[in-house]
Design brief:
This protein has 178 residues and is α+β, with helices and mostly antiparallel strands. It is 26% helix and 28% strand. The strands form 4 sheets. It has a 3-stranded antiparallel beta sheet with strand order 3-8-9, with no helix packed on it. Strand 5 and strand 6 form a beta hairpin. It is flat and about 70 Å long. About 19% of the residues have low confidence.
């Protein structure tokens, strides 16, 4: 294989590969500046308090900030983020205990309607079902039956550490005539 053959095959391949990578990064929201960025912790913030010796600051007493000496270190506090020092808490997703069936309506059975109803259901931190919205539905009352069935879902809320939190997830109901 000569250099010209290699060049004619490699350049288009390399360009197509690079274009594909850029397109995938764009579609998945990947920023190339974040790929090469070194992750660093933020510098601690320093808070100073100017006092007049008795612990009370204010316009009547105290010294200027330029007069602080080594013995005045008690006036500075370093604030660091507790989150960066703490271990990450384990996260548990929603655990569905029971999901009621959605029964066929008479109209849907007569019209032989089959398919899937996809709902977006909010599983609240307090253990109740929150908002329900329709992602894709079916005619003849099957969407409404699925929404009513979703209201009866029993679940254990998602937890971060031991703290429950609300989460929204898709729930599917499939309707099939045998």
């Amino acid at each position: 294989m000569s250099f010209d053959d290699f060049y004619k095959r490699f350049v288009p391949f390399g360009l197509a590969l690079a274009l594909g990578l850029f397109a995938a990064a764009f579609l998945y929201g990947i920023s190339f500046s974040n790929i090469f960025k070194k992750e660093s912790k933020p510098a601690p913030k320093i808070v100073s308090a100017v006092t007049n010796g008795d612990g009370a600051g204010g316009p009547g007493g105290g010294r200027s900030g330029a007069d602080f000496g080594p013995d005045d270190s008690r006036n500075f506090q370093s604030k660091t983020s507790k989150k960066s020092d703490a271990k990450p808490q384990p996260t548990k997703g929603v655990r569905v205990i029971s999901k009621p069936r959605a029964n066929y309506t008479d109209a849907a059975r007569i019209n032989s309607v089959q398919g899937k109803v996809v709902l977006r259901v909010t599983f609240s931190a307090n253990g109740s079902i929150g908002a329900i919205s329709v992602v894709s539905g079916l005619p003849d009352g099957l969407t409404e039956v699925a929404k009513e069935a979703a209201k009866g879902i029993k679940f254990e809320p998602a937890k971060r550490g031991n703290v429950p939190y609300s989460v929204t997830k898709p729930v599917e109901y499939t309707f099939t005539i045998y």
